[in-house]
Design brief:
Helices cover 89% and strands 0% of the residues.
Length: 107
């Protein structure tokens, strides 16, 4: 659901830039927003994996007395937190990369 909303939001941002009638703004938005989306999705996936793994290792002591439920909860929380934090960083860095690609392309 989150991915669908993010893709729809980016699509609307690009469409808005393209309907203003300025071709250069449309191309620039496509570069920046597309790279931002890629960075956000890639960062969120990587951050979720790493966050889940790291927190799970730290929470094994909690999981022993709760028969694994504590470890599962820790992994879910770690994955969500890691995905959110690294996804935000990926989005910002992706936008910067998109801006750079737009400038280098010379369009």
């Amino acid at each position: 659901l989150g991915i669908s909303l993010e893709v729809a939001s980016i699509g609307l941002d690009i469409q808005k830039a393209c309907t203003l009638g300025r071709q250069d703004a449309c191309r620039k938005a496509a570069y920046i927003e597309g790279a931002s989306l890629a960075g956000s999705l890639g960062g969120a996936a990587g951050g979720a994996y790493l966050g889940s793994y790291a927190i799970e290792q730290l929470c094994i002591a909690i999981g022993v007395p709760t028969r694994g439920l504590g470890t599962l909860a820790c992994a879910v929380i770690g994955g969500a937190t890691g995905g959110m934090l690294v996804g935000d960083v990926g989005k910002t860095q992706g936008a910067r990369l998109g801006e750079l690609l737009y400038e280098v392309s010379g369009e």
